[in-house]
Amino acid sequence: MKPARTSSQGFTIVEIMIVVTIIGLLAAMALPAFDRIRRSAQDRAVLNNARQLSSAADQYYLETGMSSVTLGDLVGSANFVKTLNLVANETYPDGFTQGVTITVVGIAGARTITYGP
After folding, report:
1. Measuring CA to CA, how many Å separate 36 from each of 20, 31, 50, 98, 105?
2. What percent of the chain has pLDDT over 70?
């Protein structure tokens, strides 16, 4: 009777395919979660920018006594907001009026956020 051959060298192709399949399934489950996290972070950054612009507009209204202001009067090195960093190719309004909601459009080409006074 011959002794049974045991192989202790490496993995079989079936074992490797099973591991690759499991890794693929885990990646497929994780990608939508990462996308939601990215969208949420973008929305928070855009909302923070809108808050800064709203606060800057309020300060402008108090200092000048006017009730409307353009984006150019708020953003700049010598103005209330030094820089406005775009995070998702969003578009901010060109002008602001006291008591009117700020609407930011085109966030990642699809979403809109409003920030009320």
Report:
1. 25, 9, 21, 33, 19
2. 93
